[in-house]
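QUALITY CONTROL LOG
STEP: pairwise intake check
CHECKER ROLE: data steward
CRITERIA: each record must contain a sequence immediately followed by its structure tokens, with no blank fields

ENTRY 1 OF 2
RESULT FIELD BELOW
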Amino acid sequence: MKSYLIILFCWLYSPIIFSQNVNYATILNLDYRTSNDLCDHDRCKLDIYYPENVEDFPTVVWFHGGGLTSGEKFIPEQLKNSELAIVSVNYRLLPQANLSDCIDDAAAAIAWTFKEISEYGGDPNKIFISGHSAGGYLAAMVGLDKKWLYVYGIDSDAIAGLIPFSGHAISHFAYRQSKGMKDTQPSIDEFAPLYYVRPDAPPLIIISGDREMELLGRYEENAYFWRMMKVAGHTETYLYELGGYNHGDMATPAFHILKNHIKMILKED
């Protein structure tokens, strides 16, 4: 019998109950850079969905997937009507951009959120970073490697929580492909979240699909990420494997874990 870290239907947590009397507003295609000279078309824009009559609400900055080569920002349906704000981000894509551009765009969008969310009623001390697949990789990279946010005047340790969905912990496969490496050849270098394990990082909630249904060892690399964070002395690292869910489908139940961890983190504070 295999030993799984599995949340079946995510029923191990108490349900989140949200007010029914909250109005939500959506603003589309805001620029998150002061100059768009770096970006073509709409890649450096974000959407914000937020509760209009709630004070000091938490915010989830959400990065879409697509292997860093495709994808568009969207507001996840599972996060709507939850008394959360969602900041959904487009970023530059490979091969027109390089990997540093993608990560820098993610950092710029997070910095925008820290500096602007209070204008919409949100609390900058309650900003959580998440995303699926390539988006999960970006969330982990910006949260673990402090240099990306530092250039925007933000300490990454101010992030309330990092919640990557099925993101790479090793160097991203698109980056490895650009170096002529095979998908089956892993690497851990400056473009790997694993390279930056440290005890003082924000709370880290790692969520993966079923290890037998995920992409190329995605669960195992994240399990090693979890273990090394623990070994490094980080006490708030969690790992979930969603049995029966593949890489794409795992996002739906993962949102429930995200919302419950936000609830727990805010309650502890």
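ENTRY 2 OF 2
RESULT FIELD BELOW
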Amino acid sequence: MKDRILDVYLYGRLAGKLHQGEGGRLSFFYDDNYLADKEATPLSVSMPLAREPYLDVVARPFFSGFLPDDLIRHRLAQVLGVSEENPFALLKEIGGECAGAAALFPEGEKAAESGVFEPKILSEEELAEKLDALRRRPLLAGGEGIRLSLAGAQDKLPVALLIDKNNLAEHKIALMRGGAPTTHIIKPPIERVADSVYNEFFCLKLAGRLRLPVANASIGFAKGTPYLLVERYDRAWDEEGQIRRIHQEDFCQALSIPPEQKYEREGGPGIMDCLRLLERQSARPAVDKLAFLNLLIFNYLIGNADCHGKNFSLLHGGGKPRLAPAYDLMSTAVYPEVQKKLAMKIGGEYDPEKIFRRHWHRLVVDTAGARKALDKELNDMAMAVRQAVPALIGELAEQHIASSIFDAIGQVVERRVRQVLEEF
């Protein structure tokens, strides 16, 4: 079978080519002109700039990491009429706007990022229709010139928040086409998961109150249905008023781990793998390792069992990368039917009810000083979260934002705080 080829762009420049060869095996080659630029950014820390090709064992996990997970990927493949096991075919159709600064197009067919497709401003009614359509057509794939791809196991829609020319104080939600960059991600309610929008909103706001690095988010409504509007940290407006991409990669991509193995018990990264990655690759390893540990503690306290390697990312941009802001924060413990086992074990233990100080201590070097420092982070975070929950509930009530899920999260937090503090 003759090779099939996708052009791979980074920051709008041709970075290389993704080949699909015999048996569907993938390989990636950097472009010679791209390699000649001394300031060129690698696609991934797993694929440093080099003239030799990266074969399937490295290329497949990285490029598959741009695609949705599990059931959404299955539905997407059905809509597009391709195999869900064929990341090349999927990216050929929807790879124009991915996480980070990468974009993929059929060889020689790159559309301009602006000017070819005008943004489609959505009325509230049109937005409601698009969000409803996501259940039948994930990422709105297969029509209207839309080429959007995002990882994750939840339906979502990348959009741009554009200034209303008739009222500069207002913003309009726009659908971007042809691979043009977006600025926000809309997450509609998850079916059969009560108040999922309010749950994630509360957890993101709670993290922000504790000064943890986290994506900005707000709640919007489309014909009475709430949705979460999350600002993309991998996008920014430049001085000319254009949306620019910032490159990022999740930890599974950086470690060449396929997305279907994102959970540690299925071969995915564990906490120590993540810490070693930050030690090797971060521009500020000490700062980022501490931030990572604090995010782990926070996720434990809010009862988020789905804290896996794809929910942490490296953010590139000038020199070595740094830990990206957190996203996908949700208390899964409030739902009795949801898996209780942690995505990444803490000190050798998956069951959150069986995790105590000795388990946390295994995450740091075996010295009294390191254990004392970690104890301080645990105690400070536990007390801060305990105090922040009722304050945030009150603040949101003043903004007429309320949900019974807030109190349920508070109950989980109180149980976890007591468990953390009982040995101190």
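INTAKE CHECK: passed for both entries
DESCRIPTIVE NOTE, ENTRY 2: The chain has three domains: 4-106, 120-237, 249-421.
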